[in-house]
């Protein structure tokens, strides 16, 4: 994954406001310096909550202007970051906005700010994740769609009848928004008899990571789009609800020449200014995938192009299916990527998912529909399969020795395909030994299977609802595995001022009995920022990452990368592996005290101007605990002159009273209440750490005191102290860093 950086409608009625719950997990502290900018920071400084981007699409090879809405100002934005890289977005020259502090409600979209966007001609079409950094804060996630087609923006005024429908051409990318409940947008299209028309909407895919999409309590969040095409007499020619997730795609053949009307709405007739969308209107057929979907490195493969077909006419099964050849270099980077399919006219076509694998790739033979006819495979292997008739299950047979661990991973919906995968693992007689359905944040299934004995085993793969069709394609990876780990945690974003500190929290998920040390690698830091090195030892599953900014660090930001490195036992030897961190962004949903997360690609850390707390200082810097003993940490804060309200202190990261980020090693805890509250003129508090008699030795383990400033009922800005190095004494302290 590559990262790119560029440097420099109103809200709805308050009767629909309701309590929400998400806590921004940014961990920040700054020190007021004589060299800092002289302007005074406002009070209650929060991260910037991007709520809306309009128009949501930009054509590749063009320059465009977009508006970005945010709760809290985006003035003085100095950098934008896109994943994948390539797009440039800089703040437009506009008079700065003086925005008084307000507590954002669920339906608030904030103020809009202008940005200039430039998309290279060679940029791959698709949805991009972006973040913004200002001199005072960093932002949540926004989306931008890169399209192959000319962008048309919905005009002002009503376009909800055939008389007021906005005329658009084919092809085009129509950007609009369903601004309120019962809103319907109509577009007039001039068509010809026999023309294959494809209308694909991007709605959920361009808003799914927006921090707050709480539209109406209890269940209305993202737009559930519905597309209908009518003729001049109002008769329905074709319609569609869900195609990719909740995004619709309408495919039809026009019965006659004349005007047609494309109706865009939410299936529940819900609406909100944040319901932005882009409908790509093109001539079909449109390629959506290939089969097979994977190619081994250093090999070529002839693949079938899977294309849309008109749903309002009988399907011609004898139509010859187009073939293309994939050639993959021997040094190609393994993993999923998007590649362009050549169009039928030799021009670049749409992008489709492709897996580059180091392993042998096979295709389901179509006969493996019974356990007795299971297709034999040898590990490691990847298999592309598709369900062509309802009710099918594909079976694969492999051999394993007792205690062998096999990792099975099915991918489909993560790649925009349709299979809701289910995995079964059976013995040779068909007895089910293990099953898996949904994975983490996905309908795709995966599991690690440990063989109970030497012998043959059978894997079964099916769709949950036993559906079938052109898009019911999957890829299954079956590889030997063993003790392993995953890296998770709280590291969505953070801020620190020159001379200050910040902290993120890492959590390990140890797999298949792995209990070895894991070195946490942190790189791509902002200029002038360092991170305390840490190795998570055996018996420990979490740690803090404590960052420090040099006193002369410039205001800047970067997308930080967190990984874990360890040596894993494989047979009689050990192999060194590096695992990328799984990053989750927190989302605000309707209803109080809900903690909702979604996978994202970016971890943004920024050096900023001073904030509400100018310093959080913890002493002593070195703390030693004997088994069964105690030790005190004193923490003192320095407030901004503009901030005089409460500050909450903890030795962990909390969401209300729930611990979501831990740093103290096992056997060490805080005596008494977990939270210390500083109000009024109170500037100092103490924590007493206690070690159990069985606490394991650990040496110079980096921790920090967390200070939280409430912004609203559910939103906190979390600050961190200087690093404190904790040692639990023993006969031999376990090394916790530098290895």
Distance between the termini: 27 Å
Q: So how many helices?
A: 0
Task: State the secondary-structure class.
Answer: mainly beta
Beta-strand content: over 45%
Q: Strand order, biggest sheet?
A: 1-6-9-10-4
Low-pLDDT residue intervals, each spanning 5 or more residues: 9-41, 731-739
Mean pLDDT across residues: 90
Number of strands: 62
Indicate the CATH architecture of the domain at 151-281. Answer: Sandwich
Radius of gyration: 28 Å
* Overall CATH class of the domain at 151-281: Mainly Beta
Residues in helices, as a percent range: under 10%
CATH T-level fold name of the domain at 151-281: Jelly Rolls
- Give the overall form: globular
Q: Please give the largest β-sheet.
A: 5 strands, mixed
Ordered list of secondary-structure elements with their pairings:
Elements: E1 4-7, E2 27-28, E3 49-54, E4 57-59, E5 63-71, E6 77-83, E7 88-91, E8 111-118, E9 126-134, E10 142-147, E11 151-153, E12 166-168, E13 172-177, E14 185-191, E15 196-202, E16 225-230, E17 236-240, E18 249-253, E19 258-266, E20 276-283, E21 287-291, E22 294-296, E23 300-307, E24 323-327, E25 335-342, E26 348-357, E27 360-363, E28 375-376, E29 381-386, E30 393-400, E31 405-411, E32 421-427, E33 432-436, E34 446-450, E35 455-463, E36 473-481, E37 484-490, E38 493-496, E39 501-511, E40 518-523, E41 529-531, E42 534-536, E43 542-549, E44 556-559, E45 561-570, E46 573-580, E47 583-587, E48 596-600, E49 604-607, E50 613-619, E51 622-625, E52 630-639, E53 647-650, E54 653-655, E55 658-661, E56 668-670, E57 676-678, E58 684-691, E59 698-703, E60 706-710, E61 716-720, E62 724-728
Parallel strand pairs: 2-61, 4-10, 11-13, 12-14, 22-26, 27-29, 28-30, 38-49, 51-62
Antiparallel strand pairs: 1-6, 3-5, 5-8, 6-9, 7-8, 9-10, 13-20, 14-19, 15-18, 15-20, 16-17, 16-19, 21-23, 23-24, 25-26, 29-36, 30-35, 31-34, 31-36, 32-33, 32-35, 37-39, 39-43, 40-42, 40-45, 41-43, 44-49, 45-46, 47-48, 50-52, 52-58, 53-57, 53-60, 54-55, 56-58, 59-62, 60-61
